[in-house]
Amino acid sequence: MEVYLAQPRGFCAGVVRAIEIVERALEKYGPPVYVRHEIVHNKYVVESLKNKGAIFVEELSEVPPKAVTVFSAHGVARSVEEEAAARDLPVLNATCPLVTKVHNQGKRYITKGRTLILIGHAGHPEVEGTMGQVPAPVHLVQSVQEVKALTLPADTPVAYITQTTLSVDDTKDIIAALQARFTDIQGPDIRDICYATQNRQSAVRDLSKLVDVILVVGAANSSNSNRLREIGTEAGVASYLIADGSALNPEWLKDARTVGVTAGASAPEVLVDDVIEAMRRIGPVKVSVLPGREENIEFRLPAELAAS
Ligand code: SF4
């Protein structure tokens, strides 16, 4: 079996930074360190940090007084920041800088008197965080149909922002529908919202031209991993989301001569290796890495951890 690895795949700079924040906090302050929400959506990552002494909680009320607390890469609402401040919790904020950038864009539009529209998935922690960061009501839209259903007058001055794990391609129809619906509309240049989402999606499109089956390594609750699988399916290739090698179903590969493998932004390379090992147990495998976009983006750590 020929296996092609997409390039780039797996960890993005925001995920690397978030994990490093937890690891350095554990080294500097000693365990336990409390993390609000899964630091990134990957069970393997969460379990390895748990083994080093991180404790994952969903609500700040579960964090004991004075305990070092990390906010996940997805960002949090202002109410969460306020609760942490009121409780005097020492907080390390692992929100991806690109998510913070979206928060700031939203705040700027509100300051300019615009009604804000967020393109994103209801219930996703990043969306909840963004809606809770801007000091005004936000209209969430997930589809062109939902744009049509908005009850705002057509001449309302509006602005849109988008969830970072949606790419230019994901949002273009919704943005076109918004532009058709409103006469006074502004939005950021979405090409620079998240380089990692766009690059991983472009790479899986390239992969889909070459292979019979696509395996996307990632967690079931990872928005960007699910999207990679959908892109493979939309391109007409049987595509499966797979957490690790133990989840490989030999049936998926029975008619495949070529298999493409990629990984969501929160999936570590060790899980890609694990899936390839599982394929080797089915039959001989020849692995090549496709040419793709080089990524050399790094985000700075919070000042209190940078020097440690
Ligand atoms: S996918 Fe993009 S926005 Fe999300 S953590 Fe990675 S770099 Fe940041």
Describe the structure.
- By secondary structure, this protein is α/β, with parallel strands linked by helices.
- The chain has 11 helices and 13 strands.
- The strands form 3 sheets. It has a 5-stranded parallel beta sheet. A 4-stranded parallel beta sheet has the order 3-2-4-5.
- α5 (125-133) links the parallel β6 and β7.
- α8 (195-208) packs parallel to α9.
- The N and C termini lie far apart (46 Å).
- Bound molecules: iron/sulfur cluster.
Question: Approximately how much helix is present in the residues?
Answer: 25-40%
Ligand types: iron/sulfur cluster
Which geometry do the CA atoms define? flat
Point out poorly predicted stretches.
none
Strand neighbour order, sheet with most strands? 11-10-12-1-13
Q: Quick one: biggest sheet?
A: 5 strands, parallel
| Strand coverage percent | 15-25%
Order of helices and strands: EHEHEEHEHEHEHEHEHEHEEHEH
Notable features of this structure?
binds iron/sulfur cluster; 308 residues; alpha/beta; 4-stranded parallel sheet
